[in-house]
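Sample entry copied in:
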Amino acid sequence: MPLSSKTLAKIVNGSAIPLFVINKEHKITHWNNAVEALSGRKREDVLGKDDHWMSFYKEKRPSMADLIVEGASAEEIEVYYQGKCKKSPLIEDAYEAEDFFSHLGDKGIWLHFTASPIKDDDGEIIGAIETLVDITERKNLEDNLRFFLQQITRAQEEERKYIARELHDDMAQILGSLSRRLDNLLRKKHDFGESEAAALHDVQNLLNQGMQSLNSFIQNLRPSLLDDLGLIPALRSLTNNLESTDGTIADFRVIGEERRLSNEIELSLFRIVQEALNNVSKHADATEVHVTAEFNGKGIKITVSDNGKGFELRGSMDDLPRIGQLGLMGMQERVWLLGGSIDVDSKPGRGTTLEVEVPA
């Protein structure tokens, strides 16, 4: 037996989730008790009207439900939400988003909202339903977590910088001085036998190898090139080093107008690419790797792609800690701190592509 309109209205009004329904003419047909409490507007003041935008925005603009009724494309919806929305994974033609509403509540609130089309038997859109959930507490917890992670990351980088400086100023200087003295000793004429001379040359070779390893370690701890010249020269050097040390064909490209970014962004992106190339070197068995830095109006996009053996990424990026992908988890944390996005595409035998986008 079909539900009567009165029964349906009671079900909608009894929902603890704030929601409203509009028809094809964008007029409110349902405005439940929860959305009354959230917006401060009574049902009798909005039913039959199309000014529901006033409940959420200071200036006139369409709600997500309005865009759904209009059959707006993903690109048209993006104009209003600027990277804050996505297609619903559960309902076809539905969208969800998160945004801050500064004039709601005492200090503004964060809302997670979804809008879904209402269709007739012929599949035509005759209205839309929008639900809203207050996620302010969750956002505050995320902000606190982001702050602590930033402090931890900064402390780690400062410690890396300190160790690199001490190694360079102390140990590297000692080894360099020892190498020069040994070289002077071998240049002068001494009554060394062949075996003694050969042994000294072996010591010198080992010493030079140790100096190279130490310099490489210092650069990995805190590359001076990054501090002095910025991200792009540091990434180019990082890519060239992979080719010279592993023999992997590696290239680096810049798309768009190159520019400096904040120290935090440049350092985080450098660490992400560094970890990605280390993974290629250690695990991918790749013969080629391509690194691209693309500057655009929103920020920067970094792509690292290889033709290696790839791997099966089980679950989502949120499952990384449980499946032991700690390197990828570290990348995800850095991107999250920058308010960006990360995507990994990998299949066994098809190589791996890492894409990172962060706002400038």
